[in-house]
Amino acid sequence: MSAASTELMVADFDSGHKPNNLGGEFGCWIKDPGDPMQGCIESFDRGANGNALRIIYSVDSDKPAFGGLWMRLQNLDAAKFDTLALRVKGDAGMGYTKVFKVELKDAMDVGSHYYVRGITDQWQDITIPLKDFEGMANPRKLKELVLVIEDTTATAKRGVIYLDDVRFTKTGS
After folding, report:
1. How would you class 14 by CB atoms within 10 Å of its CB: exposed for 0-12, middle for 13-18, buried for 19 or more?
2. Computed over its alpha carbons, how large is the radius of gyration of the chain?
3. Which residues neighbour 66 within 8 Å (Cβ) at sequence distance 6 or greater?
4. What does each of the 173 residues of the chain score in pLDDT, given as a tens digit?
5. 143: enclosing H helix or E strand
6. Is the entire prediction scored with pTM above 0.85?
7. 166: which of 10, 17, 135, 139 fits an S-S bond (Cβ 3.0–4.6 Å)?
8. How far apart are CA 144 and CA 104, in angstroms?
C-alpha cells in the first residue's frame, strides 16, 4: 500500500479556518449552555509547523457538566483503516485534563467510545485501534467524531487542550 492509501487526514487545521480536510464543520459544545460554569471555545493556535486547534474548556460546575469538540466526518467510509490517530497536548500554564473521551458516531447515530489517558504538556501521537472502541459504530458510514471532557473523569475541571493531525490510518497490525 502506498502512504496515501494508508492514511486519511481528517483535520490538520493548517488552513487556520473551517471546514476540516474532509469538508466537514467542527466546533465546541457543552451540555448546559445556560450554566455559566460550563464552557468551551475553540480557536486556532499558530505553531512552528502550522496551526493546531486550541480547546479552552470548563466543566467546573455543581451541575452535571461535560463538553468538548464535535467534528463532521461526512459519512466517511473508514473500513480500510484500523486506527484513529491524533496529536494532543495540554497547556502547562492554563492546566489541562489528562483524560478525555473520543466518540465515533455513524449515520444511524450509533456511537462508540474510547478513553484517552496520559495527556501531558508535550505533543504526543495518540493511536487508538478502531477495534478498541466500545460499542463500535459502523465504520463504513462515520458521521461524527466527538471529543468529550467530562466532569466525572477530568483531572482538571478547567483548562486548555491542543489538538492536531486527526487522521485514520492503516497500521496493518
Report:
1. middle
2. 15
3. 30, 31, 59, 148, 149, 150, 151, 152
4. 344 569 999 999 999 999 999 999 999 999 999 999 999 999 999 877 789 999 999 999 999 999 999 999 999 999 999 999 999 999 999 999 999 999 999 989 889 999 999 999 999 999 999 999 998 678 899 999 999 999 999 999 999 999 999 999 998 75
5. strand 142-150
6. yes
7. 10
8. 6
Q: Is 109 exposed, middle or buried (0-12, 13-18, 19+ CB in 10 A)?
A: exposed
C-alpha closest to that of 104 among 112, 93, 95: 112
Residue (of 161, 151, 168) closest to 124 by Cα position: 161
Torsion of CA 71, 86, 67, 33, to 10 degrees: -50
For 22, what's the count of Cα atoms within 13 Å in the CB-facing half-sphere? 23
Cα dist from 158 to 55, 102, 115, whole Å: 11, 18, 18
User: What pLDDT does residue 1 have?
Assistant: 39
Residue with cell 512552528: 48
Q: Identify the pLDDT of residue 173.
A: 59
